[in-house]
């Protein structure tokens, strides 16, 4: 059996959880940078994939606080919730990447079919003002992968890291 760490920040739960937090913040900052600085327009699925990050960032802060307070069960539960959020994000990213590669159809809402109008004049005006960002057409590929493809890999890695943090926190009971 190994010796207990001298500081709480030396624990595997704290290191893994801190890594998840830093990586999640970095991914969201990159996504927002591409959107607001570079000018890429996210599609509906892109926005949905961010939900896992938006959930996980504040929850990771809370989980790390609980690790510091030596509340093992509570921190393990929060890290497990983070892992589930990243698993869902991975699923959404795989779905979008598959639609981009034409393995399956993307959602109808990303094709422009969701505009409703009450008469022909309103329909024409709505069509003129609506810009649909397609979920099945990548705006760019970097090293052969779209943003959805990269997000699938990153989210899967964050799922594994959060799960490892959850088990490490639970072992400290």
Description:
The mean pLDDT is 85. The protein has 173 residues and is mostly helical. Helix 1 packs antiparallel against helix 2 and helix 1 (12-38) packs antiparallel against helix 5 (147-171). The radius of gyration is 20 Å and the shape is elongated. 33% of the residues are buried. It has one domain (8-171): Bromodomain-like (Up-down Bundle), CATH 1.20.1550. Helix content is 67%, strand content 0%.
Q: Structural class per helix/strand content? A: mainly alpha
Question: What is the name of the CATH architecture?
Answer: Up-down Bundle
The residue-averaged pLDDT reads: 85
Number of domains: 1
- Coarse morphology: elongated
Kindly provide the radius of gyration, computed on alpha-carbon positions and rounded to a whole number of angstroms. 20 Å
What's a concise summary of this model?
This protein is mainly alpha-helical and 173 residues long. Helices cover 67% and strands 0% of the residues.
Secondary structure layout plus pairing:
Layout: H1 12-38, H2 44-68, H3 72-100, H4 120-129, H5 147-171
Helix pairs in contact: 1-2, 1-5, 2-3, 3-5
Key features?
elongated, mainly alpha, 173 residues, Bromodomain-like
